[in-house]
Amino acid sequence: MEYWYTEEHSENVRFSIRVDKQLYSAKSTFQRIDVFEAEEFGRFLTLDGLMMLTEKDEFIYHDMIVHVPMASNPGIKKVLVIGAGDGGTVRELTRYSTIEKIDMVEIDKMVVEACLEYMPQTSSRLSDPRVTIYYEDGLKFVRDKVNMYDLIIVDSTDPFGPGEGLFTKEFYGNCYKALTEEGILVNQHECPYYESYAMSMKRAHKRIREFFPVTRVYQAHIPTYPSGHWLFGFASKKKDPIKDLDENRWNSLGIKTKYYNTELHKGCFAIPTYVKELLDDADKE
Amino acid sequence: MNRQDRTPIYDALHQYIDNRIVSFDVPGHKQGKGHKALVDAFGQKCISMDLNSSKPLDNLTHPTGVIREAEILAAEAFRASQAFFITNGTTAAVQNMIFSCCRQNDKIIMPRNVHKSVINAMVICGAAPVYVNPGIEPELGISLGMSVNDVKKAVSENSDAKAIFVNNPTYYGVCSDLREIVKIAHDAGMLALIDEAHGTHLYFGEDLPLSAMDAGADMSAVSIHKTGGSLTQSSMLLLGPAVDAEAVRQIINLTQTTSGSYLLMASLDIARKNLCLHGKEIFERVCSLSEYARKEVNRIPGFRAFGKEIINGDTVFDFDRTKLSIHTRAMGLAGIEVYDILRDEFGIQIEFGDIGNVLAIISVGDRELEIERLLGALSEIQRRFSRDPMNMLDHEYIDPQVAMTPQQAFHAKKRSVPIRESLGMISAELVMAYPPGIPILAPGERLTSEIIDYIRYAKEKGCVMTGTKDMEMNNIETVEE
Fold it and tell me: Less CB within 10 Å around the terminal CB: N or C of chain A?
């Protein structure tokens, strides 16, 4: 028997994983949720058929979305995480004893429930006493927050479906308002390679730049995401991710990571020429 | 099986396609066979259904088959004696109401804030308007419904009028005391005509204002495409029991296309079925979305989303809760400015913005996600764009000075003059901001300094002004006296 999971990375490109068995499948108000188990990637979660994370490579994404901003400002105390129902982002954040409060806003409770049951590798720290989970639309949550968070991490799905509102100008503006004076906004920034994703990337970049004086893009290599080349957006009111990086201080924390290190921190902001050009185009539009 | 489960026109189209009938009639694209670009653009199914009247598909101008069946089902659904499918827009439905009861110089009582189509109907048929001042809500600057006393007064002063015409609900959701106005009309031997363009949902939701047919009105124009889910330009004209339906059909056939679109007609059929079977839940949801949005908008300083609190027992006899109208003046922004910012900055298109308000239509197709986007954008507008509300013009209704009928003025010998020099002259044309499409000035009305100021202000704030021959609206056609 052949049992394969397939995601279409573009109309003409498919990515498949041989599946051992399906552990969970349900339809929530917002989307279809599935958890599979595979020989190569361990367990993996998909939403509406799109890959969210696998046990084998989730460390890359979660390292990069958390440790880059945390190393850029060790003074971060209050963090808002939007999306991230699998718990991986929160897991990395809880490794910092300096963080006092983590609010996580996930629109779909069923995703969190499914991950608590089937994805303990990422969801294990959702019970940390500093964590409060709100089940609502992220756009709604930030609307009335003012000067409250030092870091906002937007760990969303793609900008089609329930995540759409998290790529809009109103959302970025509301985030700006919700951030403190030294606030940082980090978001998953899609992939530059396939055209439809690249368009989302350009649009997000353009909108964020309208609000934040410091905006940078950094990259990581994530094997199970379209093209394997994934971007993150770093936007802040003051902090520069490279100038303000205090390597010794972060290294003294003794946080053991599998992907992130402070050398890579400096390097990940060096992006390929064609991506730079895409971002420059977005600025001109 | 529930009778309302049926969709006779749509089913007949399906059968027609299944029978693989060879077409030597119009439309010439022959179900798309000769026009690939059309099929690529709109899809095979859609183009296959773009057919012509024929025996199995009936004929809109003289329906005896599936169209007749569909109209009977629609009449039942809307609790009317007769329903006509209209494919020329609700404009046609409104105009046919007026053509059905007014000849040259016949009087018709109406509020001044009628839709452009009403003024145009009078230009065509020569009816003479008797305007009832709808009154202005002082804080919001919106025109309201008709006061029962004003209607009584107009009726007693114009006992020869043929009909009373009511906007119900208005664009903003304001309803008049329909039952009482219908009674006044009938007691005086007049017909009660209702422009219910924004009221399709009143027939299907619960705890919504009274509908025209339930109030005993004689005719009503319902724009099913606006809030009922049919395709743009499809509409219905509903009749009460006292009106001669066949005579009305003759009037409709004077101006309605003889090539009525089957896509539009089938969409009316499908929308009617959906409203009958699911309307109650749909509008419960719509109401809860708009009430939620209202509550959240009111937490943003500077915006006021008004609702049932404006009910006053007369000019606001009831309020349509599905409407999300927001007063923007305290934000220091004209409604039209908020409307433009929403579109240009946030990619959100709302129904209209006028001098002091914006209106968001919430309907069958809305979800929480989009509501949150609108709310997020409004809170950003407050943060980024709000200004000192000094020097904001704050009223909308200007009492018209009618010098001649719209038709007389329209056909009179005319002279074009710059608007700023037009004081005291009689306008030969219509001036309005679109949307909402309610005339600021109708043909036959005198230009006052108030009107000239209003036009200048509306232009300056970015309202799209339409109606005049001069596309830039620097000049206006006036009647040579």
Answer: N
What tens digit of pLDDT does each residue of A132-190 get?
Answer: 999 999 999 999 999 999 999 999 887 777 788 888 999 999 999 999 999 999 999 88
**pLDDT of B61-92, one tens digit each?**
999 999 999 999 999 999 999 999 999 999 99
> Which of chain B's residues have a Cβ under 8 Å away from the Cβ of A142?
376
ipTM: 0.85
Question: Do residues B217 and B366 both lie within one domain?
Answer: no
Chosen for mutation from B348, B366, B373, B383 (greatest number of chain A CBs closer than 10 Å) is B373
Where is the domain boundary, B223, B256, B275?
Answer: B275
Q: Tokens 């009179």 appear where?
A: B412
The number of CA neighbours under 13 Å toward the Cβ of A35 is: 17
Same domain (yes/no): B23, B35:
yes
For chain B, give the number of residues: 481
Residue B36 burial (C-beta neighbours within 10 Å; 0-12, 13-18, 19+): exposed
> Residue A95's domain spans which residues?
58-284
Judging contacts by C-beta atoms under 8 Å, the chain A residues touching residue B379 are 143-144, 170, 174
Closest by Cβ to A143, choosing from B347, B379, B384: B379
Please state, in angstroms and rounded to a whole number, the distance separating the CA atoms of residues B44 and B37.
11
8 A C-beta contact, residue B272 and residue B4: yes
Closest CA in chain B for residue A163: B369
Q: What is the pLDDT of residues A211-258, one digit of tens each?
A: 999 999 999 999 999 999 999 999 999 999 999 999 999 999 999 999
- Chain centre to alpha carbon of residue A203: 17
Q: How many domains is chain B built from?
A: 3
Q: Is A155 a catalytic residue?
A: yes
**Do the Cβ atoms of A144 and B299 come within 8 Å?**
yes
Chain B partners of A171 at a C-beta cutoff of 8 Å? 376
**B-chain residues within 8 Å CB-CB of A168?**
346-347, 373, 376-377
Contact state of A170 with B377 under an 8 Å Cβ cutoff: yes
What CATH number does the domain containing B75 carry?
Answer: 3.40.640.10
In tens, the pLDDT along A39-84 reads 999 999 999 999 999 999 999 999 999 999 999 999 999 999 999 8
Pairing of strands B465-466, A50-54: unpaired
* pLDDT reported for residue B434: 64
Task: Label residues B158-192 b or e (16+ Cβ within 10 Å = b).
Answer: beebbbbbbbbbbbbbbbbbbebbbebbbebebbb
Q: Which of B339, B76, B367 is closest to A165 using CA atoms?
A: B367
Q: Is the domain of A50 the same as that of A137? A: no
Summarize pLDDT for B115-166 with one digit per residue, the tens: 889 999 999 999 999 999 887 887 888 888 999 999 999 999 999 999 999 9
**Per-residue confidence (pLDDT) for residue A261, from 0 to 100:** 97
What integer pLDDT is reported at residue A187 of this predicted model? 93
B458, HSE (Cβ side, Cα atoms, 13 Å):
27
- Are B376 and A177 a contacting pair at CB < 8 A? no
Task: Choose the closest CB to A173 out of B347, B375, B380.
Answer: B380
State whether A105 and A146 are in the same domain: yes
